[in-house]
Amino acid sequence: MLENPKRYTITAALPYTNGPIHIGHLAGVYVPSDIYARYLRLQGKDVAFICGSDEHGVAISMKAKKEGITPQQVIDKYDGIIRKSFLDFGISFDNYSRTSSEIHHKTASEFFKKLYDNGDFIEETTEQLYDAKADQFLADRFVTGTCPKCDNPEAYGDQCEKCGSTLNATDLINPKSTITGETPILKATKHWFLPLNRYESFLREWILEGHKNDWKPNVYGQVKSWVDGGLEPRAVTRDLDWGIDVPVEGAEGKKLYVWFDAPIGYISSTKEWAAREGKDWEPYWKDADTKLVHFIGKDNIVFHCIIFPAMLKAEGSYILPDNVPANEFLNLEGNKLSTSKNWAVWLHEYLQDFPEKQDSLRYALTANAPETKDNDFTWKDFQARNNNELAAIFGNFINRVVVLTNKYYNGIVPAPNEFSEVDEQTLAELKAYPAVISSSIERYRFREALGELMNVARLGNKYLADEEPWKMIKENPARVQTQMYVALQIASALAVLSEPFLPFTAKKLSNILKINALGWNDVTTKTDLLPAGHQIGQAEILFAQIEDAEIQKQLEKLEATKTANKVENAKAEPQKDIITFEDFAKVDLRIGTIIEAEKMPKANKLLVLKVDTGIDVRTIVSGIAEHFTPEEVIGKRVTVLVNLAPRALRGVESEGMLLLTNNAEGKLVFVNPDAEGVINGAMIS
């Protein structure tokens, strides 16, 4: 671990531009990286916080085919949505670039060419999966099949999303083309491979020995598993029509593999930032006094801890990451987040549905961050954290301090009198919090750090509750001056310490208290964060309550998604055995109307119906009581099988059967005629 670095390069995983940002991305990568970057800036550190849109690879091509547009239209659409979402949510990137930019194409090509010229690649002709009907090779996600490690039948050609294994398309059992559904064939094609096996000893020494004690167990464990399993050469080119051209002779029609080109996007984005700011980019990637930290999700550990470091090592002039604090996954209401299934809380939609509540989501995602295991986001928990923690603890303390200061002193910070032992103890405890929170942040324990921030607010609430200045004001106003002075110091500290976690709240609170240019360490070193005689503003609500109706709306939106997914993924039952026309002719189907209905006594599922079939009125017992009330079905026109042999059900003879089916939600619906003029008794043929 690098001690006292001169500068920090912080990268956040480049989001794919095949869809918007959702809460899983935020919890796993963007909120923790933003907390870290904001914290370092408050300490006066030299920080380059780098990201950008990942705009190449199969995912983009698949999205373009699905939507019937070009890959360029796909990346332009989603880059715009993602970029605005990050800006509106307060993710404080120093630069957000695009891998479709000229500077990135040039940087990635030069990187590849240097490794190629140095002889770092293996050139091999291998057999790859090929869709003869589509006349193209099937890279990565253009092929699905059964995972050889966990038997998941829907694994992709690059990764199994069930067990997390990284795969090659040729590893899949019973592969199918996602383009045509055909079974692909093997066909020879030439590609360039990075021989990861050459870097096995380097990776063992650098990570397995050098970072045994400071990298997260989930990251260390996954790397160890890969290295112990034996590293093999990995293709860095693909047969695709979308991406960066492979810059060597004999590579026509081939593109750089997205996982070769994407991490180089951190470098090209840094170049773009440095050029704009008039800086030299190289120290941020090549100086040994620079601390490089990659923030990613657990599905990207292999690429950032094995493949990219091997690339950097091969190139020779770059530093290696000091840490890769990957998070686990965030689920949504008990189910795995999925872009393709629309099972997500999309950031741009959240910002529309909950205006000016960015910090409520930042807080909930940090408090429930999947730092050591997969966690679950629920709307009820989100509501409770906003109402019972942010509003009831943080917001309540600030409101009381500001209201009382304006009530007693017209908003002017009072001069303190003699400090009591409680006052001195409270102020000493306050001064200790920056170091406590720093320790958690610098060990990438952001959930723990947030808990300590809230303890500052709890400290303030306890102080006011114990001291009761509203009771003391009449009998000892001099004492109240000291009490309010102490409380205002706590409020000021919150304005500073909350900035990495709750930047919108910190800005609002700073405006209320009229604080300017306080740094992180000032909370510990300054005697007066708010000096006596300082004028503060009026109270504002920091955290409005979130009502049940708002949460219900979100739950209903998710239910609608579930229903839509069931409809889209519904599969018909297999066809039954073939029958002859003579068999069908024996079936007598008629149109009828239900004229009476009542529940069968002591039977939860059965309704006893009187049905006018046009040829008679008969009794039919039907197992539909869990789906319909008797009142709902009276008057319903139905399709009736009238020549079914009678059958006694709980002592009632049933003379026929109604035709029903299930909708996407599993609810029974009648198969019935809607056309006017169809009489009861009309035959169906």
UniProtKB/TrEMBL annotation:
Coiled coil region boundaries: none
Motif ('HIGH' region): 15-25
GO molecular function, one term: methionine-tRNA ligase activity
Cofactor(s) the protein requires to work: Zn(2+)
Alphabetized HAMAP family for the sequence: Met_tRNA_synth_type1
Biological role: Is required not only for elongation of protein synthesis but also for the initiation of all mRNA translation through initiator tRNA(fMet) aminoacylation.
Family statement drawn from the similarity comment of this UniProt entry: Belongs to the class-I aminoacyl-tRNA synthetase family. MetG type 1 subfamily.
Protein name: Methionine--tRNA ligase
Organism in which the protein naturally occurs: Flavobacterium helocola
Lineage: Bacteria, Pseudomonadati, Bacteroidota, Flavobacteriia, Flavobacteriales
